[in-house]
Amino acid sequence: MSESTQEISPLEDARSLIRNAPEPDAAPAQKVRDALLGMGREGDFGRLGEAAAWLAKWQGRFPPRIEKPFLAVFASSHGLASEGVSLSSPDDTRAHVDALREGKAPLSAIATQSGANIRVYDLAIDKPTQSIAESPAMSERECAATIAYGFETAEDKPDLLALAVSGAGVGTAAAAVACALYGGAPDYWVRPSNQTTAELVERRVDVVARALALHRGHLSDPLQALRHVGGRELAACVGAIIAARHQGIPVVLDGFATTIAAAVVHAIEPKAISHCIASHVTRRPAHEAAMERLGLQPLLQLEFQTGGGLGSATAIGLLKTACAPFIAEPEGASAT
Question: Which GO terms describe its biological process (predicted)?
Answer without folding.
Answer: cobalamin biosynthetic process
